[in-house]
Here is the input.
Amino acid sequence: MADFFGPDVAYRYDRDHCNQTDEELEKSVEFLAELAGSGRALEFAIGTGRVALPLSDSGIKVSGIELSEAMVGELRRKPRGNEIPVAMGDMTQTSVEGRFSLVYLVFNTLSNLTSQDAQVACFRNAAAHLEDGGHFIVENAIPPFWGLANDTTKMAFDRSDSHWGIDEIDVVTQQGTSHHVWLEEAGPRLMALPFRFVWPSELDLMAALAGLELVERWQDWWRTPLTAQSKVHVSVWRKR
Ligand SMILES: C[S@@+](CC[C@H](N)C(=O)[O-])C[C@H]1O[C@@H](n2cnc3c(N)ncnc32)[C@H](O)[C@@H]1O
Here is the structure.
């Protein structure tokens, strides 16, 4: 997966690859800070520190785990980017010293783990880093069946002037590929990112295997109730 987030993607990630608004970012940081309380937070797949840096600015001690050197390179280039400790490695098995009141994994990155075993291992690794009563938060896409008509396996999720996105999904294997086209002056730039889509209920089972129980699930960081039309969920599990 580090190959998908190499230097070519990393340097433009914050600008072109993240379609979240400033309001969403601000609200997510507020939500995460509230759950972290007076404890420490650990971000799985910390990337360029898009979320970790403002969370750290809000007074929370934040650490990270990340696979891509290039993404962490971008974090290091930012003001105070050197102050966030990051362990390089796979979030399914990399350990960081100490215990945390909050572990979080946002922006659909759980689905970048393309097997059920890897997703289960990710929950177990999150639980292993939590103190008792600590929380694991995941923000992840809900399987995109709302966009599939008849027999098609392809669904457009973005048709803006600067970016087109089509998810290709196989409902039997739960494997998908997000095809991206950025419309740039120099010509179209392409990326195809594999993912494993997963229902929230399957995640609850993974959480239970790891000794975590669901305490909240919403459609966004504003705690909007989930509906049949929700495209994303924000779920919070607590270590028993
Ligand atoms: C969509 S970006 C999200 C980055 C950051 N969390 C954010 O919200 O901006 C996905 C990140 O996950 C990292 N990643 C993917 N699989 C990983 C894994 N198994 N272990 C650690 N990091 C991983 C990628 O290198 C990339 O930086």
